[in-house]
Write a structure and sequence with these properties.
By secondary structure, this protein is of the alpha+beta class. It contains six helices and eleven strands. The chain has one domain (about 10-225): VC0467-like. Strands 1, 2, 3, 4, 5, 6, 7, 8, 9, 10 and 11 form an eleven-stranded mixed sheet that branches. The protein is globular and about 45 Å long. This is UPF0301 protein SU9_012550. It comes from Streptomyces auratus AGR0001. Belongs to the UPF0301 (AlgH) family.
């Protein structure tokens, strides 16, 4: 099998040529990528559903807009939280099951719960310890155990976003799409997770690139009008 270079923590930005309506102008944060497949969440698909309506205990920690985002077309009845811990650690880590916390009416598997403990302070995080209830994916970005008490993370979270569902690819499937020109692969920034204007994230991510991709940001929504 051809060795797969991990893209975990990077962004997939849909090219204008990508025809799948699930990913039109999508910006996907890859949470896992290896020989067995890929998993990520779409960062720019806010829904009308408030976090308070689904996961009330976490609503106060969710950034604006305080709504649930559609993370992708897979397992829409499950929820996962992606959060940034400022001054976070570098490197990569494992991630909990994406079905670890179910939305109301969902039937995701029970995750391993974090034990009750005082909230970690920033000194603990900066010393390299992962706060209870948060597991690093890449750099300062990590996944939240939504079954854990929110107060475990209230003191350390810089931002939190709740996603319903996720995007998934089988072995080699994402690599095929990359060869076909469906995605641009770019570096992520912690602020991408908490963008207050997610509808503009596709253009914003492309615009900050220091190459020809910056020009793609001007591509019209309807090419026939160009």
């Amino acid at each position: 099998m051809t060795e797969v270079s991990s893209l975990t923590g990077r962004l997939l930005v849909a090219t204008p040529a990508l025809a799948d309506p699930n990913f039109d102008r999508a910006v996907v944060l890859l949470l896992d990528h290896d020989e067995e497949g890929s998993l990520g969440v779409v960062l720019n698909r806010p829904t009308p559903v408030g976090v308070a309506d689904i996961l009330a205990p976490w609503a106060a920690l969710a950034g604006e807009p305080g709504v649930v985002f559609q993370g992708g077309p897979v397992s829409l009845d499950s929820a996962l939280g992606v959060a940034v811990v400022p001054g976070g650690m570098s490197g990569e880590g494992g991630i909990p099951s994406v079905d670890g916390s179910a939305l109301a009416g969902g039937d995701g598997a029970e995750p391993a719960g974090a034990p009750a403990a005082p909230a970690a302070d920033r000194a603990d995080v900066q010393s390299g310890d992962e706060p209870l209830g948060w597991r690093r994916v890449h750099g300062a970005i990590g996944l939240v155990d939504l079954e854990a008490p929110p107060e475990l993370l209230a003191a350390v979270l810089g931002s939190l976003r709740i996603f319903a569902g996720y995007a998934g690819w089988g072995p080699g499937q994402l690599e095929d799409e990359l060869v076909e020109g469906a995605w641009y692969v770019v570096e992520s920034e912690p602020g991408d997770v908490s963008s207050p204007d997610p509808e503009q994230l596709w253009r914003a991510v492309l615009r900050r690139q220091r190459n020809e991709l910056a020009m793609v940001a001007t591509y019209p929504d309807d090419p026939s009008l160009n």
